[in-house]
């Protein structure tokens, strides 16, 4: 246990309050355990039958009774006060707190920033800023629990209902986010990261996310009939990681449906596909889901991520892969108006968007270095 951090520089006011309550009650419990146990042992020895003598009948002792009523009452009232003070702090969100909406799904976390309209698979917030986290789960999902141990905050994600918690970090850093409610097969994999960064880095991150999300889709040149599968570098999206986080639980790591056998599609079982393996059909499936099956829509994916995931899925197909054509992309652009996307508040020119996207890797060098597997692809 990192006692130095806990007692000298708490990460947040909530951390300090919770640790205070925990430590006070821990020490009081230990004191009572030792006091009662030692007294008991002393009495067992002192009043052993061999040494016993006939005692006179004791009718009562006023001050002894006053003491054992007043002292414990004061003690538990004080314990209640410490807990109540912490409870008030935890449940009272400071005015003007920034809002992040969290959705817990089997088996991933999704973070939505309503002001900017962006979604991320990891959480990034500025330091010294109160953050209200509004938590929910899709109506057809199960109960999860959003837990940031370092900040001592935890709240259930209940399907169809909104709960909340808040925290404010006094330091920058990387912190674990866990699911603390057993929610099925991959409960233990339901892990994400909280990045607390400086105000300036947060601004850069938001800009990069907006640029990434609202970047107009330029499909010309991407459709190479000789190369029906293009790599993640073409989109600057780690589609393999997206697949692992969102698809592998059901479709299996190798795309053979082994995650939920008999329920999830084996990508090689072409005759049973409800749609073709054209990129357009996979995109539609990701955008809209397939009615009457467990394949739900993923509206939190950007168009680029859906295209990247489409190609990731196509990598699993060994036979009968239909090549990607310019017409496919034209069809997608027309149906989903992908050429008309604009960021909230400002329209970013393509060149500026690309500059922001390619510059992003340099904005968080410490993240890149410490979390090679996590960084760079959270949306
Ligand atoms: Cu979600 Cu455990």
Please describe the structure with a list of short key phrases separated by commas or semicolons.
379 residues; 5-stranded mixed β-sheet; disordered C terminus
What does this entry look like structurally?
- This protein has helices spanning 3-8, 13-46, 62-91, 199-214, 239-246, 248-251, 279-288, 303-315, 326-336, 350-363, 365-370, and strands spanning 98-105, 108-113, 118-120, 123-126, 131-136, 144-148, 153-157, 163-167, 173-179, 192-197.
- Mean pLDDT is 80; it is low at 1-7, 223-233 and 360-379.
- α5 packs across α8 (303-315).
- The chain has 11 helices and 10 strands.
- It is elongated and about 100 Å long.
- A hairpin with a 4-residue loop joins β2 (108-113) and β3.
- It is an alpha+beta fold and 379 residues long.
- The chain starts with a helix and ends in a 9-residue tail after the last helix.
- The strands form 2 sheets. It has a 5-stranded mixed β-sheet. It has a 5-stranded mixed β-sheet with strand order 4-10-9-6-7.
- Residues 104, 107, 144, 179, 181-183, 187, 190 line the site of dinuclear copper ion.
- Residues 104, 107, 144, 179, 181-183, 187, 190 line the site of dinuclear copper ion (CUA).
- The structure class reads alpha+beta
- Rg, Å, rounded: 29 Å
Q: What's the total count of β strands?
A: 10
In terms of DSSP E residues, the strand content is 5-15%
How much helix is in the residues?
40-55%
Mean pLDDT: 80
Based on Cα principal axes, name the global outline.
elongated
Bound small molecules, which ones? Answer: dinuclear copper ion
Low-confidence stretches: 1-7, 223-233, 360-379
């Amino acid at each position: 246990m990192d006692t130095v951090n806990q007692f000298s520089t708490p990460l947040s006011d909530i951390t300090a309050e919770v640790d205070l309550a925990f430590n006070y009650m821990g020490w009081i419990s230990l004191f009572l355990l030792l006091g009662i146990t030692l007294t008991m042992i002393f009495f067992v020895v002192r009043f052993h039958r061999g040494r016993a003598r006939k005692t006179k009948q004791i009718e009562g002792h006023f001050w002894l009774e006053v003491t054992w009523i007043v002292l414990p009452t004061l003690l538990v009232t004080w314990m209640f006060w410490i807990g109540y003070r912490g409870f008030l702090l935890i449940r009272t969100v400071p005015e003007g707190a920034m809002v992040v909406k969290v959705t817990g799904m089997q088996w991933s976390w999704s973070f939505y920033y309503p002001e900017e309209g962006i979604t991320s698979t990891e959480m990034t917030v500025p330091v010294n800023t109160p953050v209200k986290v509004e938590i929910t789960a899709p109506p057809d999902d199960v109960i999860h629990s959003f837990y940031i141990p370092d900040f001592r905050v935890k709240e259930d994600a209940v399907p169809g209902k909104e709960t909340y918690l808040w925290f404010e970090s006094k330091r920058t850093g990387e912190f674990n986010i866990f699911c603390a409610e057993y929610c099925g097969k991959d409960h233990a994999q339901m892990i994400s990261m909280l990045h607390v960064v400086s105000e300036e880095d947060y601004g850069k991150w938001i800009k990069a996310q907006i640029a990434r999300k609202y970047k107009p889709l330029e499909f010309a040149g991407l459709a190479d009939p000789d190369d029906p599968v293009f790599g993640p570098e073409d989109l600057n999206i780690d589609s393999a990681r997206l697949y692992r986080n969102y698809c592998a639980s059901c479709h299996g790591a190798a795309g053979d449906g082994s995650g939920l056998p008999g329920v999830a599609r084996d990508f090689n079982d072409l005759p049973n596909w409800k749609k073709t393996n054209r990129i357009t059909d996979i995109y539609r499936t990701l955008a809209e889901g397939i009615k009457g099956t467990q394949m739900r829509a993923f509206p939190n994916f950007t168009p680029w991520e859906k295209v990247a995931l489409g190609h990731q899925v196509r990598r699993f197909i060994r036979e009968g892969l239909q090549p990607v054509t310019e017409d496919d992309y034209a069809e997608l652009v027309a149906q989903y108006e992908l050429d008309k996307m604009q960021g909230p508040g400002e329209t970013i020119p393509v060149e500026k968007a690309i500059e922001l996207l390619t510059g992003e890797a340099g904005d968080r060098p410490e993240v890149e270095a410490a979390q090679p597997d996590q960084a760079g692809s959270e949306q």
